[in-house]
Structure to design on (399 residues):
């Protein structure tokens, strides 16, 4: 049973709102730039997919940055969905995050260890992983099933899939589902530098993220949030809601292997589960928004997984991370919203910076520029450290 999508909201490196994201995707414009929100003097990597300062406009002060993003995305989604006309106890909130309130944690440690000061009294409620979901529930008076979903970079894809399952099971009529992360804190970036997987090109930030390219250098950190309003078909129909698309299927697997190295088998099993849950033959999926991080490990492994599932008939694949970077636990939701916006507008979003394809990555990655399409079904892949895999099957409009 598919679940209706009736509202979308997004805050991304492209700016605030759906129109900013659609414009950037349509014009193959990178949102990766020099970081301005923190002092980068101690960092080797001084670039990221940073949300522009004007996107926050001073709203929701007092919350951690990741919570502010979630609130803005949820408010945009709620506005598009319109009056829900339902019991608040039948409205849920599932917001995934990989890292939670990094800004608050970093600030508290700086006060305590570097400055010898006192920890902020709101340090715990601002930094906890469920802070964003709690704030969204309070803002929207959602009193139903609500919790945080944490599975590294698969968090928001898991949140959206689990939200759809909750609606199918009759636990809720409506769920605000998505993800938020704001990892641009000095301690977090230094930790990623230590892993040696960042694509550092401080002089040319817009060129730094190069998924599936032979000369790729690694992932580029990013921040942001995206939220979908999910409803049962019955509830959406009863209130005359406009249906933007549907969550048709969901697959979730574990590699049960290496903590950081991905598994083609685990990714393939998640894709197959999502297709089976949707009741789709593989050939009906017209597009895949890849996890596509731009790391040496992910890109050929994910390409091999797609080949396992689709054989020689793989659909076009692209990585929108090439434009907005890797927003950790928020990435899956950002990519689902981006794909919905693009396919509604009749194009496949591109993989920019793909000038020299890696011979080990042998699929159609929609290089450099958007491509017209009539595709109405897609998969969104999200794979996280710890071997956590989540794939969401989505149909566009009434497809």
């Amino acid at each position: 049973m598919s679940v209706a999508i009736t509202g979308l909201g997004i805050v991304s490196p492209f700016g605030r709102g759906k129109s900013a994201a659609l414009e950037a995707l349509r014009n193959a414009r990178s949102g990766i730039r020099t970081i301005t929100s923190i002092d980068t003097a101690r960092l080797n990597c001084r670039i990221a997919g940073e949300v522009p300062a004007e996107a926050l406009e001073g709203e929701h002060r007092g919350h951690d940055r990741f919570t502010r993003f979630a609130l803005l995305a949820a408010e945009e989604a709620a506005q598009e969905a319109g009056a829900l006309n339902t019991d608040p106890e039948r409205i849920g909130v599932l917001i995934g995050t990989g890292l939670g309130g990094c800004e608050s944690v970093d600030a508290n440690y700086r006060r305590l260890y570097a400055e010898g000061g006192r920890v902020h009294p709101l340090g715990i409620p601002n930094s906890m992983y469920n802070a964003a979901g709690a704030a969204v529930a309070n803002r929207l008076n959602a009193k139903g099933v609500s919790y945080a979903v944490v599975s590294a970079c698969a968090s928001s894809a898991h949140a959206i899939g689990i939200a759809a399952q909750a609606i199918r099971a009759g636990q809720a009529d409506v769920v605000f589902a998505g993800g938020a992360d704001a990892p641009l804190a000095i301690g977090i970036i230094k930790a990623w530098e230590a892993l040696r997987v960042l694509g550092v090109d401080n002089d040319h930030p817009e060129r730094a993220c190069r998924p599936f390219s032979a000369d790729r250098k690694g992932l580029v950190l990013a921040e942001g949030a995206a939220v979908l309003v999910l409803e049962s078909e019955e509830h959406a129909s009863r209130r005359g809601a406009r249906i933007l698309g549907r969550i048709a299927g969901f697959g979730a697997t574990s590699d049960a292997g290496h903590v950081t190295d991905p598994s083609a088998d685990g990714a393939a099993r998640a894709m197959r589960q999502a297709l089976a849950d949707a009741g789709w033959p593989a050939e009906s999926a017209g597009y895949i928004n890849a996890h596509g991080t731009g790391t040496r490990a992910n890109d050929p492994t994910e390409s091999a997984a797609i080949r396992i599932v689709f054989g020689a008939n793989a659909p076009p694949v692209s990585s929108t991370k090439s434009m907005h970077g890797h927003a950790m636990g928020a990435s899956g939701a950002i990519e689902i919203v981006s794909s919905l916006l693009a396919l509604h507008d009749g194009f496949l979003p591109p993989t920019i910076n793909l000038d020299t394809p890696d011979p080990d990555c042998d699929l159609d990655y929609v290089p450099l520029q958007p491509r017209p399409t009539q595709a109405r079904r897609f998969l969104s892949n999200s794979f996280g450290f710890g071997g956590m895999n989540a794939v969401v099957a989505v149909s566009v409009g009434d497809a």
About this structure: The two ends are 14 Å apart (CA to CA). The longest strand covers residues 3-12.
